Amino acid sequence: MRDHLAFTLVYFLSHILVSVYCNFFISSNIQLMYLLSIYFYVFIIFMCFRLIKYISTNREIQRLSENIEIEEKSFSCEQQAAIQLIHRIHHSYQDQIYEVKAQADNTHKFISQWIHNLKTPLSVIDLILQNYKLNPTGYALALQHVEEEKDKLLSMLNQMLKFFRLEHFTRDYNPEPINLLESLRSLINSKRNQYIYNHVYPVIECEDERITVMTDSKWNTAMLDQIISNAIKYSNPGEEAKPIHFRIGQRGDQVVLSIKDEGIGIEPVDLQRVFQPFFTGKNGRTHHQATGIGLYVCSEIARKLGHRLTITSEVNQGTEVQISYLSKMKENVR
């Protein structure tokens, strides 16, 4: 009745005016009452049809809450538009709910696997301490082993922190032009001890030291740090130290950074899955410190930054990782 209040007022007002007009020409009150009753009954019949239509439409809308598709019925254009809008909103929220559930399941999987990975260094530390209690004279070697396991724990903690920060990437994203060579040199220098310990050394080639790229300095450093750490870890040095090649080159409107080691390489069957979370492949079975998180985080950082990350490898020949950036040349650099 509220929806049809205006219609009801116009309807009865018009018929009252007609009745007043007819009163001057119709002398019998019975005929006037008959005319008014016809108006009233027609209105009641019309409103009954509208009520049936309303109940039917409301029932179909209520079925949406049960994930039941609306059947094709003779709804009015206004009702069809309202139902279609509700249907779109309903499906939109369903998609968002499924996405949130998928993210929650993925996060739960990451946390479970991460906790499992943390157990290994802790177990090793416990064994070292037990051995030291049996042989107190070997404290120097015990401390060295504990420090190695500590570094593994710290590395895994940093990886998981990066993973959780990716969920709020836009809050911590600040793209700016940076000198890629300077950023790379700073990162290489910070890993000097790792190079010495693993018997590898860096070789840098750069076409133009003025080349700058558009990226987020913090996230780009996190990505490169993981890639360089992998190159050092899997270099598989022999009697002689092996190089890790860094090459920066311009390709049209892009700058390509290549990081190539001469290590153990990756099996062809594993190469297509290296960016999947917690996938370690054959190398993970021989290198127990592998977590399978690093390259996944790198691929997500590259995707969010708009960089292209590719990897090629040959077994016992080495692995090459290439990152393509949007370039920005500085004409006056001193």
From TrEMBL:
InterPro entries found in the cross-reference section? BphY/WalK/GraS-like, HATPase_C_sf, HATPase_dom, His_kinase_dom, HisK_dim/P_dom, HisK_dim/P_sf, Sig_transdc_His_kin-like_C
Residue ranges of every copy of the Histidine kinase domain listed in the record: 113-329
What is the membrane topology here?
Answer: Multi-pass membrane protein
**Regions crossing the membrane:** 7-26, 32-52
Record's catalysed reaction(s): ATP + protein L-histidine = ADP + protein N-phospho-L-histidine
What GO biological process terms does the UniProt entry carry, in alphabetical order? cellular response to phosphate starvation
Which Gene3D superfamilies would you find in this protein's record?
1.10.287.130, Histidine kinase-like ATPase, C-terminal domain
Report the EC code(s) recorded for this entry: 2.7.13.3
What UniProt keywords are attached to this protein's entry? ATP-binding, Cell membrane, Kinase, Membrane, Nucleotide-binding, Phosphoprotein, Transferase, Transmembrane, Transmembrane helix, Two-component regulatory system
GO cellular component assignments: plasma membrane
Gene Ontology MF, one: phosphoprotein phosphatase activity
Pfam families hit by this protein: HATPase_c
What PROSITE patterns is this protein classified in?
A: HIS_KIN
| Cellular localisation | Cell membrane
What is this protein identified as? histidine kinase
